[in-house]
Amino acid sequence: METEHIVKSFDEELATLDNMVAEMGGLAEAQLADAIEALLRRDVELAGRIVERDQRIDAIENDLHTFTIRLLALRQPMADDLRIIVAALKISSSLERIGDYAKNVAKRTFVLAKGPPLGGTAQSIARMAVLVQAMIKNVLDAYIQRDAAKADDVRIRDQEVDQVYTSLFRELLTYMMEDPRNITVATHLLFVAKNVERIGDHVTGIAEQVHFMILGDLPGDLRPKGDNTSFTAVDTDGAPAGAKADGERPET
Amino acid sequence: MNAIAMSNQEAPAANIKMRAAGVDVSYGNKQALFSVNVQIEANTVTALIGPSGCGKSTFLRCLNRMNDVIDGCRVTGQISLDGEDIYSPAIDVVELRARVGMVFQKPNPFPKSIYENVAYGPRIHGLADSRAELDDIVEASLRRAGLIDEVRERLDEPGTGLSGGQQQRLCIARAIAVEPEVILMDEPCSALDPIATAKVEELIDELRARYTIVIVTHSMQQAARVSQRTAFFHLGEVLEQGETGQIFTNPVDGRTQAYITGRIG
Question: Which of A80, A85, A146, A217 to mutate to test the interface with B (most CBs of B within 10 A)?
Protein backbone atom coordinates (compact mmCIF):
# COMPACT_ATOMS: atom_id res chain seq x y z
CA MET A 1 0.00 0.00 0.00
CA GLU A 2 1.46 3.28 -1.15
CA THR A 3 -0.14 5.58 1.38
CA GLU A 4 -2.06 5.19 4.57
CA HIS A 5 -5.81 5.38 4.92
CA ILE A 6 -7.31 8.31 6.78
CA VAL A 7 -9.13 5.74 8.92
CA LYS A 8 -6.18 3.92 10.51
CA SER A 9 -8.18 0.93 11.70
CA PHE A 10 -8.81 0.01 8.04
CA ASP A 11 -5.05 -0.17 7.47
CA GLU A 12 -4.80 -2.43 10.51
CA GLU A 13 -7.52 -4.69 9.12
CA LEU A 14 -5.78 -4.95 5.76
CA ALA A 15 -2.54 -5.80 7.58
CA THR A 16 -4.41 -8.51 9.49
CA LEU A 17 -5.64 -9.89 6.17
CA ASP A 18 -2.06 -9.97 4.85
CA ASN A 19 -0.93 -11.79 7.98
CA MET A 20 -3.66 -14.41 7.63
CA VAL A 21 -2.70 -15.09 4.00
CA ALA A 22 0.99 -15.21 4.95
CA GLU A 23 0.31 -17.62 7.81
CA MET A 24 -1.79 -19.90 5.62
CA GLY A 25 0.87 -19.76 2.93
CA GLY A 26 3.65 -20.55 5.36
CA LEU A 27 1.73 -23.54 6.72
CA ALA A 28 0.91 -24.84 3.24
CA GLU A 29 4.56 -24.52 2.23
CA ALA A 30 5.67 -26.42 5.37
CA GLN A 31 3.02 -29.11 4.85
CA LEU A 32 4.33 -29.80 1.35
CA ALA A 33 7.97 -29.87 2.55
CA ASP A 34 7.07 -32.27 5.38
CA ALA A 35 4.93 -34.45 3.13
CA ILE A 36 7.86 -34.93 0.76
CA GLU A 37 10.17 -35.55 3.73
CA ALA A 38 7.78 -38.22 5.03
CA LEU A 39 7.63 -39.78 1.57
CA LEU A 40 11.42 -39.97 1.25
CA ARG A 41 11.99 -41.23 4.79
CA ARG A 42 8.94 -43.53 4.65
CA ASP A 43 7.96 -41.88 7.93
CA VAL A 44 4.32 -42.71 8.73
CA GLU A 45 4.44 -40.87 12.05
CA LEU A 46 5.33 -37.60 10.33
CA ALA A 47 2.67 -38.34 7.70
CA GLY A 48 0.08 -38.69 10.48
CA ARG A 49 1.03 -35.30 11.92
CA ILE A 50 0.69 -33.71 8.48
CA VAL A 51 -2.85 -35.08 8.11
CA GLU A 52 -3.78 -33.60 11.49
CA ARG A 53 -2.18 -30.23 10.86
CA ASP A 54 -4.28 -29.66 7.73
CA GLN A 55 -7.15 -28.66 10.03
CA ARG A 56 -5.20 -25.59 11.05
CA ILE A 57 -5.08 -24.37 7.43
CA ASP A 58 -8.80 -25.02 7.04
CA ALA A 59 -9.52 -23.07 10.22
CA ILE A 60 -7.56 -20.03 9.04
CA GLU A 61 -9.36 -20.19 5.71
CA ASN A 62 -12.71 -20.07 7.51
CA ASP A 63 -11.58 -17.13 9.62
CA LEU A 64 -10.31 -15.36 6.54
CA HIS A 65 -13.61 -15.85 4.70
CA THR A 66 -15.57 -14.44 7.63
CA PHE A 67 -13.15 -11.56 7.94
CA THR A 68 -13.29 -10.61 4.24
CA ILE A 69 -17.12 -10.69 4.26
CA ARG A 70 -17.04 -8.30 7.24
CA LEU A 71 -14.56 -6.01 5.49
CA LEU A 72 -16.65 -5.92 2.32
CA ALA A 73 -19.82 -5.12 4.27
CA LEU A 74 -18.40 -2.65 6.76
CA ARG A 75 -15.69 -0.85 4.78
CA GLN A 76 -17.29 -0.98 1.33
CA PRO A 77 -13.86 -0.94 -0.25
CA MET A 78 -13.07 0.53 -3.65
CA ALA A 79 -10.29 0.28 -6.22
CA ASP A 80 -7.07 -1.37 -4.94
CA ASP A 81 -8.59 -2.00 -1.49
CA LEU A 82 -11.36 -3.96 -3.17
CA ARG A 83 -8.89 -5.90 -5.28
CA ILE A 84 -6.71 -6.69 -2.24
CA ILE A 85 -9.68 -8.15 -0.37
CA VAL A 86 -11.05 -10.16 -3.30
CA ALA A 87 -7.56 -11.44 -4.12
CA ALA A 88 -7.03 -12.53 -0.49
CA LEU A 89 -10.32 -14.43 -0.64
CA LYS A 90 -9.32 -16.29 -3.79
CA ILE A 91 -5.72 -16.86 -2.71
CA SER A 92 -6.91 -18.39 0.56
CA SER A 93 -9.02 -20.90 -1.36
CA SER A 94 -5.99 -21.91 -3.42
CA LEU A 95 -3.83 -22.23 -0.31
CA GLU A 96 -6.46 -24.43 1.29
CA ARG A 97 -6.40 -26.69 -1.78
CA ILE A 98 -2.59 -26.80 -1.63
CA GLY A 99 -2.91 -27.97 1.97
CA ASP A 100 -5.32 -30.68 0.85
CA TYR A 101 -2.92 -31.93 -1.80
CA ALA A 102 -0.05 -32.04 0.71
CA LYS A 103 -2.31 -33.98 3.07
CA ASN A 104 -3.11 -36.41 0.27
CA VAL A 105 0.60 -36.99 -0.37
CA ALA A 106 0.98 -37.75 3.35
CA LYS A 107 -1.94 -40.19 3.29
CA ARG A 108 -0.42 -42.16 0.42
CA THR A 109 2.82 -42.44 2.37
CA PHE A 110 1.07 -44.98 4.64
CA VAL A 111 0.65 -47.40 1.70
CA LEU A 112 3.95 -46.54 0.04
CA ALA A 113 5.92 -47.20 3.25
CA LYS A 114 4.70 -50.80 3.18
CA GLY A 115 5.87 -51.53 -0.37
CA PRO A 116 9.34 -51.54 -1.87
CA PRO A 117 10.82 -48.25 -3.12
CA LEU A 118 10.41 -47.90 -6.85
CA GLY A 119 13.75 -46.91 -8.35
CA GLY A 120 14.47 -43.22 -7.86
CA THR A 121 10.89 -42.05 -8.40
CA ALA A 122 10.46 -40.65 -4.89
CA GLN A 123 13.65 -38.63 -5.39
CA SER A 124 12.36 -37.34 -8.74
CA ILE A 125 9.11 -36.28 -7.04
CA ALA A 126 11.16 -34.57 -4.33
CA ARG A 127 13.06 -32.63 -7.00
CA MET A 128 9.75 -31.50 -8.50
CA ALA A 129 8.54 -30.53 -5.00
CA VAL A 130 11.64 -28.38 -4.47
CA LEU A 131 10.64 -26.37 -7.56
CA VAL A 132 7.07 -26.05 -6.30
CA GLN A 133 8.16 -25.03 -2.80
CA ALA A 134 10.32 -22.27 -4.28
CA MET A 135 7.29 -21.11 -6.28
CA ILE A 136 5.13 -21.00 -3.12
CA LYS A 137 7.78 -19.02 -1.26
CA ASN A 138 8.22 -16.55 -4.13
CA VAL A 139 4.51 -16.04 -4.71
CA LEU A 140 4.01 -15.30 -1.01
CA ASP A 141 6.91 -12.83 -1.14
CA ALA A 142 5.34 -11.25 -4.24
CA TYR A 143 2.04 -10.97 -2.35
CA ILE A 144 3.52 -9.38 0.76
CA GLN A 145 5.88 -7.08 -1.16
CA ARG A 146 3.21 -6.21 -3.78
CA ASP A 147 5.67 -7.20 -6.51
CA ALA A 148 3.83 -7.99 -9.75
CA ALA A 149 7.02 -8.81 -11.68
CA LYS A 150 7.93 -11.45 -9.12
CA ALA A 151 4.43 -12.95 -9.39
CA ASP A 152 4.69 -13.06 -13.19
CA ASP A 153 8.03 -14.86 -12.86
CA VAL A 154 6.43 -17.54 -10.66
CA ARG A 155 3.72 -18.01 -13.23
CA ILE A 156 6.22 -18.82 -15.96
CA ARG A 157 8.18 -21.24 -13.77
CA ASP A 158 5.26 -23.67 -13.57
CA GLN A 159 6.35 -24.90 -17.00
CA GLU A 160 9.41 -26.61 -15.46
CA VAL A 161 7.17 -28.43 -12.98
CA ASP A 162 4.94 -29.64 -15.77
CA GLN A 163 7.94 -30.96 -17.70
CA VAL A 164 9.23 -32.93 -14.70
CA TYR A 165 5.74 -34.30 -14.16
CA THR A 166 5.47 -35.43 -17.77
CA SER A 167 8.72 -37.35 -17.53
CA LEU A 168 7.69 -38.89 -14.17
CA PHE A 169 4.42 -39.97 -15.72
CA ARG A 170 6.29 -41.88 -18.43
CA GLU A 171 8.71 -43.34 -15.94
CA LEU A 172 5.88 -44.71 -13.81
CA LEU A 173 4.00 -46.15 -16.79
CA THR A 174 7.19 -47.96 -17.74
CA TYR A 175 7.54 -49.48 -14.26
CA MET A 176 3.99 -50.75 -14.52
CA MET A 177 4.63 -52.27 -17.95
CA GLU A 178 7.75 -53.99 -16.67
CA ASP A 179 6.13 -55.74 -13.73
CA PRO A 180 2.46 -55.73 -12.76
CA ARG A 181 3.50 -56.05 -9.07
CA ASN A 182 4.70 -52.44 -9.36
CA ILE A 183 1.22 -51.20 -10.18
CA THR A 184 0.05 -50.45 -6.62
CA VAL A 185 3.13 -48.45 -5.67
CA ALA A 186 3.43 -46.82 -9.08
CA THR A 187 -0.20 -45.73 -9.05
CA HIS A 188 0.15 -44.13 -5.63
CA LEU A 189 3.36 -42.41 -6.73
CA LEU A 190 1.55 -41.22 -9.84
CA PHE A 191 -1.09 -39.58 -7.64
CA VAL A 192 1.62 -38.09 -5.43
CA ALA A 193 3.32 -36.62 -8.50
CA LYS A 194 -0.04 -35.37 -9.77
CA ASN A 195 -0.74 -33.72 -6.41
CA VAL A 196 2.56 -31.88 -6.50
CA GLU A 197 1.89 -30.84 -10.07
CA ARG A 198 -1.57 -29.56 -9.08
CA ILE A 199 -0.01 -27.55 -6.28
CA GLY A 200 2.11 -25.87 -8.94
CA ASP A 201 -1.07 -25.03 -10.86
CA HIS A 202 -2.64 -23.47 -7.77
CA VAL A 203 0.51 -21.44 -7.14
CA THR A 204 0.22 -20.20 -10.72
CA GLY A 205 -3.36 -19.16 -10.00
CA ILE A 206 -2.21 -17.33 -6.89
CA ALA A 207 0.45 -15.55 -8.97
CA GLU A 208 -2.31 -14.39 -11.32
CA GLN A 209 -4.34 -13.07 -8.38
CA VAL A 210 -1.29 -11.20 -7.06
CA HIS A 211 -0.80 -9.64 -10.50
CA PHE A 212 -4.50 -8.65 -10.58
CA MET A 213 -4.39 -7.28 -7.06
CA ILE A 214 -1.47 -4.98 -7.88
CA LEU A 215 -2.17 -3.95 -11.47
CA GLY A 216 -5.94 -4.34 -11.80
CA ASP A 217 -5.87 -6.71 -14.77
CA LEU A 218 -5.21 -10.38 -15.25
CA PRO A 219 -2.01 -11.35 -17.07
CA GLY A 220 -3.17 -11.67 -20.66
CA ASP A 221 -0.56 -13.72 -22.50
CA LEU A 222 -0.97 -17.45 -22.77
CA ARG A 223 1.22 -19.14 -20.23
CA PRO A 224 3.68 -21.73 -21.54
CA LYS A 225 2.59 -25.19 -20.44
CA GLY A 226 4.65 -28.34 -20.21
CA ASP A 227 2.18 -30.98 -19.02
CA ASN A 228 1.63 -33.33 -21.96
CA THR A 229 0.46 -36.32 -19.96
CA SER A 230 -3.14 -36.02 -21.14
CA PHE A 231 -1.87 -37.08 -24.55
CA THR A 232 0.71 -39.62 -23.42
CA ALA A 233 0.46 -43.34 -24.03
CA VAL A 234 2.89 -46.25 -23.78
CA ASP A 235 2.89 -48.65 -26.70
CA THR A 236 2.53 -52.38 -26.12
CA ASP A 237 6.14 -53.46 -26.63
CA GLY A 238 6.95 -51.60 -23.46
CA ALA A 239 8.76 -48.52 -24.65
CA PRO A 240 7.07 -45.32 -23.49
CA ALA A 241 6.12 -43.05 -26.34
CA GLY A 242 4.06 -39.96 -26.83
CA ALA A 243 0.86 -40.34 -28.76
CA LYS A 244 2.26 -37.55 -30.87
CA ALA A 245 5.79 -36.35 -31.40
CA ASP A 246 7.39 -35.00 -28.20
CA GLY A 247 6.00 -31.73 -26.97
CA GLU A 248 3.36 -31.54 -29.65
CA ARG A 249 -0.27 -31.22 -28.73
CA PRO A 250 -3.10 -32.12 -31.01
CA GLU A 251 -4.98 -29.03 -32.15
CA THR A 252 -8.33 -28.86 -30.48
CA MET B 1 -30.65 -1.01 -10.87
CA ASN B 2 -28.20 -0.63 -13.68
CA ALA B 3 -26.45 -3.72 -14.95
CA ILE B 4 -22.92 -3.90 -13.69
CA ALA B 5 -20.73 -3.27 -16.68
CA MET B 6 -18.01 -5.89 -16.84
CA SER B 7 -16.03 -4.61 -19.77
CA ASN B 8 -13.82 -1.58 -19.64
CA GLN B 9 -14.42 -0.76 -23.25
CA GLU B 10 -16.10 2.51 -24.09
CA ALA B 11 -19.79 2.40 -24.95
CA PRO B 12 -20.17 2.28 -28.72
CA ALA B 13 -20.60 5.67 -30.44
CA ALA B 14 -21.99 7.47 -27.40
CA ASN B 15 -24.58 10.14 -28.07
CA ILE B 16 -23.16 13.28 -26.45
CA LYS B 17 -25.89 15.44 -24.91
CA MET B 18 -23.72 18.13 -23.33
CA ARG B 19 -20.09 18.93 -23.86
CA ALA B 20 -17.82 21.20 -21.82
CA ALA B 21 -14.55 22.22 -23.44
CA GLY B 22 -11.82 24.28 -21.84
CA VAL B 23 -14.13 25.67 -19.15
CA ASP B 24 -12.54 28.13 -16.71
CA VAL B 25 -14.57 29.64 -13.88
CA SER B 26 -13.46 32.41 -11.52
CA TYR B 27 -15.17 33.99 -8.55
CA GLY B 28 -13.64 37.46 -8.49
CA ASN B 29 -9.90 36.82 -8.73
CA LYS B 30 -10.12 33.30 -7.37
CA GLN B 31 -10.15 30.66 -10.09
CA ALA B 32 -12.39 27.69 -9.29
CA LEU B 33 -12.20 25.61 -12.48
CA PHE B 34 -9.23 25.10 -14.78
CA SER B 35 -9.82 24.08 -18.38
CA VAL B 36 -12.47 21.45 -17.65
CA ASN B 37 -13.40 19.05 -20.43
CA VAL B 38 -16.35 16.78 -19.72
CA GLN B 39 -18.68 14.92 -22.05
CA ILE B 40 -22.14 14.09 -20.83
CA GLU B 41 -23.79 11.23 -22.68
CA ALA B 42 -27.51 11.19 -23.39
CA ASN B 43 -29.69 8.93 -21.22
CA THR B 44 -26.79 8.31 -18.91
CA VAL B 45 -26.21 9.18 -15.27
CA THR B 46 -22.91 11.01 -14.94
CA ALA B 47 -21.57 11.34 -11.38
CA LEU B 48 -19.27 14.21 -10.44
CA ILE B 49 -17.14 13.29 -7.44
CA GLY B 50 -14.28 14.92 -5.59
CA PRO B 51 -13.39 16.53 -2.26
CA SER B 52 -15.20 19.62 -1.00
CA GLY B 53 -14.15 22.75 -2.85
CA CYS B 54 -12.92 20.81 -5.89
CA GLY B 55 -15.33 22.64 -8.20
CA LYS B 56 -17.87 19.92 -8.95
CA SER B 57 -20.89 21.98 -7.84
CA THR B 58 -19.48 25.01 -9.63
CA PHE B 59 -19.25 22.92 -12.77
CA LEU B 60 -22.78 21.57 -12.30
CA ARG B 61 -24.14 25.12 -12.01
CA CYS B 62 -22.38 26.07 -15.27
CA LEU B 63 -24.51 23.55 -17.11
CA ASN B 64 -27.70 25.61 -16.74
CA ARG B 65 -26.04 28.97 -16.14
CA MET B 66 -26.98 29.12 -12.47
CA ASN B 67 -23.61 30.83 -11.98
CA ASP B 68 -24.98 33.86 -13.90
CA VAL B 69 -26.77 34.99 -10.75
CA ILE B 70 -23.58 34.97 -8.65
CA ASP B 71 -21.81 38.34 -8.55
CA GLY B 72 -18.26 38.28 -9.83
CA CYS B 73 -18.55 34.82 -11.34
CA ARG B 74 -16.94 34.56 -14.75
CA VAL B 75 -17.27 31.53 -17.03
CA THR B 76 -15.12 31.09 -20.14
CA GLY B 77 -14.66 28.18 -22.49
CA GLN B 78 -17.46 26.37 -24.24
CA ILE B 79 -20.46 24.45 -22.96
CA SER B 80 -22.89 23.09 -25.49
CA LEU B 81 -26.27 21.40 -25.32
CA ASP B 82 -27.00 19.31 -28.43
CA GLY B 83 -24.11 21.13 -30.08
CA GLU B 84 -25.49 24.60 -29.29
CA ASP B 85 -23.39 26.98 -27.17
CA ILE B 86 -25.46 27.70 -24.06
CA TYR B 87 -23.46 30.85 -23.30
CA SER B 88 -24.22 32.38 -26.69
CA PRO B 89 -26.18 35.69 -26.54
CA ALA B 90 -28.93 34.06 -28.59
CA ILE B 91 -29.80 31.70 -25.75
CA ASP B 92 -32.86 32.45 -23.60
CA VAL B 93 -31.65 31.57 -20.11
CA VAL B 94 -35.15 30.89 -18.77
CA GLU B 95 -35.79 28.45 -21.60
CA LEU B 96 -32.34 26.88 -21.03
CA ARG B 97 -33.19 26.22 -17.38
CA ALA B 98 -36.43 24.54 -18.44
CA ARG B 99 -34.40 22.26 -20.71
CA VAL B 100 -31.73 21.72 -18.05
CA GLY B 101 -33.56 21.36 -14.73
CA MET B 102 -32.07 21.20 -11.28
CA VAL B 103 -32.65 19.45 -7.96
CA PHE B 104 -30.83 20.73 -4.88
CA GLN B 105 -29.26 19.24 -1.79
CA LYS B 106 -32.02 20.29 0.56
CA PRO B 107 -35.58 19.63 -0.57
CA ASN B 108 -37.02 23.08 -1.25
CA PRO B 109 -40.72 22.82 -2.14
CA PHE B 110 -42.56 26.09 -2.61
CA PRO B 111 -44.79 27.04 0.34
CA LYS B 112 -47.77 25.98 -1.75
CA SER B 113 -49.87 22.88 -2.26
CA ILE B 114 -48.37 19.70 -3.65
CA TYR B 115 -50.37 20.29 -6.83
CA GLU B 116 -49.17 23.88 -7.22
CA ASN B 117 -45.55 22.88 -6.65
CA VAL B 118 -45.68 20.70 -9.76
CA ALA B 119 -48.08 22.89 -11.78
CA TYR B 120 -46.03 26.07 -11.32
CA GLY B 121 -43.40 25.36 -14.01
CA PRO B 122 -45.76 24.12 -16.75
CA ARG B 123 -48.03 27.11 -16.06
CA ILE B 124 -45.35 29.81 -16.39
CA HIS B 125 -43.86 28.09 -19.45
CA GLY B 126 -47.35 27.85 -20.99
CA LEU B 127 -47.19 24.08 -21.43
CA ALA B 128 -50.89 23.48 -20.67
CA ASP B 129 -53.88 24.96 -22.49
CA SER B 130 -56.50 23.86 -20.01
CA ARG B 131 -56.94 22.83 -16.42
CA ALA B 132 -57.47 19.24 -17.55
CA GLU B 133 -54.20 19.28 -19.43
CA LEU B 134 -52.41 20.73 -16.41
CA ASP B 135 -53.96 18.02 -14.22
CA ASP B 136 -52.54 15.42 -16.60
CA ILE B 137 -49.06 16.95 -16.46
CA VAL B 138 -49.13 17.09 -12.66
CA GLU B 139 -50.28 13.50 -12.37
CA ALA B 140 -47.76 12.22 -14.93
CA SER B 141 -44.91 14.09 -13.24
CA LEU B 142 -45.83 12.80 -9.80
CA ARG B 143 -46.10 9.30 -11.24
CA ARG B 144 -42.66 9.49 -12.88
CA ALA B 145 -41.27 10.75 -9.60
CA GLY B 146 -42.74 7.69 -7.89
CA LEU B 147 -44.84 9.86 -5.58
CA ILE B 148 -48.38 9.66 -6.98
CA ASP B 149 -49.65 6.83 -4.78
CA GLU B 150 -48.45 8.60 -1.65
CA VAL B 151 -50.03 12.00 -2.44
CA ARG B 152 -53.05 11.33 -4.68
CA GLU B 153 -55.53 12.02 -1.87
CA ARG B 154 -53.74 15.10 -0.55
CA LEU B 155 -52.79 17.19 -3.57
CA ASP B 156 -54.18 20.33 -1.91
CA GLU B 157 -52.07 19.96 1.21
CA PRO B 158 -48.84 21.96 1.48
CA GLY B 159 -45.75 20.39 -0.06
CA THR B 160 -43.79 21.31 3.03
CA GLY B 161 -45.93 18.85 5.04
CA LEU B 162 -44.39 15.85 3.29
CA SER B 163 -41.46 13.85 4.71
CA GLY B 164 -37.95 14.81 3.61
CA GLY B 165 -37.71 11.99 1.06
CA GLN B 166 -41.18 12.77 -0.30
CA GLN B 167 -40.28 16.47 -0.54
CA GLN B 168 -37.18 15.59 -2.56
CA ARG B 169 -39.23 13.45 -4.92
CA LEU B 170 -41.73 16.33 -5.14
CA CYS B 171 -38.84 18.57 -6.21
CA ILE B 172 -37.89 15.98 -8.83
CA ALA B 173 -41.55 15.91 -10.01
CA ARG B 174 -41.42 19.71 -10.21
CA ALA B 175 -38.22 19.53 -12.25
CA ILE B 176 -39.59 16.99 -14.72
CA ALA B 177 -43.01 18.72 -15.09
CA VAL B 178 -41.50 21.14 -17.62
CA GLU B 179 -40.19 18.23 -19.75
CA PRO B 180 -36.48 18.96 -19.34
CA GLU B 181 -33.83 17.12 -21.34
CA VAL B 182 -31.15 17.18 -18.67
CA ILE B 183 -31.60 17.05 -14.88
CA LEU B 184 -28.81 18.33 -12.64
CA MET B 185 -28.78 17.02 -9.08
CA ASP B 186 -26.59 18.55 -6.40
CA GLU B 187 -26.25 16.00 -3.59
CA PRO B 188 -29.95 15.12 -3.79
CA CYS B 189 -29.81 12.50 -1.03
CA SER B 190 -27.49 14.04 1.50
CA ALA B 191 -30.41 15.09 3.74
CA LEU B 192 -32.29 11.78 3.37
CA ASP B 193 -32.36 8.52 5.32
CA PRO B 194 -31.27 5.26 3.62
CA ILE B 195 -34.79 4.22 2.58
CA ALA B 196 -35.63 7.62 1.08
CA THR B 197 -32.18 7.58 -0.54
CA ALA B 198 -32.85 4.17 -2.08
CA LYS B 199 -36.17 5.45 -3.48
CA VAL B 200 -34.49 8.48 -5.04
CA GLU B 201 -31.71 6.27 -6.46
CA GLU B 202 -34.26 3.90 -7.96
CA LEU B 203 -36.04 6.94 -9.41
CA ILE B 204 -32.78 8.24 -10.92
CA ASP B 205 -32.28 4.87 -12.59
CA GLU B 206 -35.82 4.97 -14.04
CA LEU B 207 -35.54 8.60 -15.16
CA ARG B 208 -32.42 7.79 -17.15
CA ALA B 209 -34.60 6.25 -19.89
CA ARG B 210 -36.14 9.69 -20.61
CA TYR B 211 -33.58 12.18 -19.36
CA THR B 212 -29.87 12.79 -19.12
CA ILE B 213 -28.77 13.10 -15.50
CA VAL B 214 -25.75 14.71 -13.90
CA ILE B 215 -25.37 14.15 -10.17
CA VAL B 216 -22.94 15.61 -7.67
CA THR B 217 -22.47 13.32 -4.68
CA HIS B 218 -20.13 12.95 -1.76
CA SER B 219 -21.06 9.32 -1.35
CA MET B 220 -18.70 7.11 -3.33
CA GLN B 221 -21.11 4.23 -2.93
CA GLN B 222 -23.95 6.32 -4.32
CA ALA B 223 -21.87 7.37 -7.32
CA ALA B 224 -21.01 3.72 -7.87
CA ARG B 225 -24.64 2.62 -7.52
CA VAL B 226 -26.42 5.17 -9.69
CA SER B 227 -24.01 6.31 -12.39
CA GLN B 228 -22.68 4.83 -15.59
CA ARG B 229 -19.98 7.43 -15.98
CA THR B 230 -17.94 9.21 -13.34
CA ALA B 231 -15.74 12.31 -13.46
CA PHE B 232 -13.28 12.97 -10.65
CA PHE B 233 -12.65 16.64 -9.79
CA HIS B 234 -9.61 17.72 -7.80
CA LEU B 235 -8.59 21.33 -7.07
CA GLY B 236 -10.65 22.64 -9.96
CA GLU B 237 -9.45 20.13 -12.55
CA VAL B 238 -10.96 16.94 -13.91
CA LEU B 239 -8.24 14.37 -13.26
CA GLU B 240 -10.06 11.33 -14.55
CA GLN B 241 -13.37 10.46 -16.17
CA GLY B 242 -14.67 7.21 -17.54
CA GLU B 243 -16.93 4.23 -17.10
CA THR B 244 -18.02 4.04 -13.47
CA GLY B 245 -17.03 0.38 -13.00
CA GLN B 246 -13.50 1.13 -14.16
CA ILE B 247 -13.15 4.24 -11.97
CA PHE B 248 -14.15 2.32 -8.84
CA THR B 249 -12.23 -0.90 -9.46
CA ASN B 250 -9.13 0.24 -11.30
CA PRO B 251 -8.68 4.02 -11.46
CA VAL B 252 -5.78 5.20 -13.59
CA ASP B 253 -4.82 8.29 -11.59
CA GLY B 254 -3.23 7.75 -8.18
CA ARG B 255 -5.08 10.76 -6.78
CA THR B 256 -8.44 9.27 -7.83
CA GLN B 257 -7.46 6.05 -6.09
CA ALA B 258 -6.38 7.90 -2.93
CA TYR B 259 -9.68 9.80 -2.82
CA ILE B 260 -12.11 6.93 -3.43
CA THR B 261 -10.30 4.60 -1.04
CA GLY B 262 -10.06 7.24 1.70
CA ARG B 263 -6.30 7.56 1.72
CA ILE B 264 -4.16 10.51 2.64
CA GLY B 265 -3.66 11.98 -0.84
Answer: A80
Dihedrals phi, psi of B150, to nearest 5 degrees: -85, -20
The answer to whether position B70 is within a domain reads yes
Q: Does B15 touch chain A (CB under 8 A)?
A: no
Could you list the residue range(s) of the whole structural domain that residue B135 is in? 19-260
Q: What is the pLDDT of residues A70-110, one digit of tens each?
A: 999 988 999 999 999 999 999 999 999 999 999 999 999 99
Determine contact, residues A225/A162, Cβ cutoff 8 Å. Answer: yes
Q: Chain A: give the shortest CA distance to residue B221, in Å.
A: 8
Q: Tell whether the model's pLDDT for residue A133 goes beyond 80.
A: yes
Flag if B262 and A10 touch (Cβ within 8 Å).
Answer: yes
Q: What is the H or E stretch that residue B129 is in?
A: none
The reply to whether residue B264 touches residue A6, judged by beta carbons under 8 angstroms, is: yes
CB spacing of B220 vs A6 below 8 angstroms: no
Q: Tell me the torsion sign for CA atoms B60, B64, B65, B69.
A: negative
Given this model, what pLDDT does residue A243 score? 41
- How many other CB atoms are there within 10 angstroms of residue A56's CB atom? 14
Assign residue B231 the CATH number of its domain.
3.40.50.300
- The rounded distance, in Å, linking the Cα atoms of A81 and A10 is 10
| Contacting residues for A114 by C-beta, under 8 A, at least 6 apart | none
Domains of chain A: 8-242 (1.20.58.220)
**Residue B38 and residue B85: Cα distance in Å, rounded?**
14
Alpha helices in A113-230 (DSSP H): 121-145, 148-178, 183-215
B36 in Cβ contact with B23 (< 8 Å): yes
Tens of pLDDT, residue by residue over B113-156, are: 999 999 999 999 999 999 999 999 999 999 989 999 999 999 99
Q: Read off φ and ψ for residue A251, nearest 5 degrees.
A: -70, 135
**ipTM of this predicted structure:** 0.72
Q: Do A79 and B257 touch (CB under 8 A)?
A: yes
Answer for the pair B127, B76: CB distance below 8 angstroms, yes or no.
Answer: no
pTM of the predicted protein model: 0.80
